[in-house]
Amino acid sequence: MSQSALTTEIDRLGPWFHNIHLPSGHQTAPDHFFGDFPMTKWRQIAPFLPKDLSGKTVLDIGCNAGFYSFELAARGADVLGIDMDDRYLEQARWVAQRKQLSDCTRFKKASVYEVGNLDAGQFDIVLFMGVFYHLRHPLLALDLIQSLEPELLVFQTLTHGDEVVSPFSWTETNFQTRDRLGERGWPSMAFIETTFAGDPTNWWVPNHAGVEAMLRSAGFTVTARPGHEIYVCNAAEAASRPYLDEAHQDARSIMSNAQGSQR
Questions:
Q1: For the domain with range 36-261, which CATH number is right: 1.10.274.10, 3.40.50.150, 3.40.50.10210, 3.40.50.300?
Q2: Is the pLDDT of residue 202 over 70?
Q3: 191 DSSP β-pair partners
């Protein structure tokens, strides 16, 4: 494909949210308002992932145009990227051809709430980047992801406030001490009733303490913080918390019933 034809194709497929560097030297969104995004995020995450992912499987939830999918595929992983936006999926498939990564990347229209239909243990690594705050039912999504039993979860979400975590234990809370729940550093989420940043799909903005608490509640252990709002987790804690099995079964049942009612 000629240089001018590539430029025409990039424009046709736009607008792009991922600035992807193509082998031809073209970039899909060189004037991105976040700079070279999401390369800046990837540089933070990359050192916390194995350089050789041969034989590993990855689920990229909310894959957008596939930037992270391609970076992981370049390390040898077999990647499934899911998104609900047809335009992003078309972009991802087009880039996969340009990068000659079509054999190790697949892209499918699906939501995070559908991951419960996937087999447990099918994915070694799950990327869940920039999706959480767009969800009306965020904890349900975490339960469904944990039910897949991944070895590693890379999680990123919009947050608010500082990173203080209250030392006040939840086991000490009761009806008489409930005012403590409003203290700085208590796990919380701000609810967005209408729009945030002009986007009506933004529903929740948690604080740092809330992110860590919800990840723990779903059975994940935070093992690293590559950067602001980024959490690397494993699922080692789940085995010692038997109530999670019931929670995850409930999550699968909820989504199965919801999908059945839509047929």
A1: 3.40.50.150
A2: yes
A3: 204
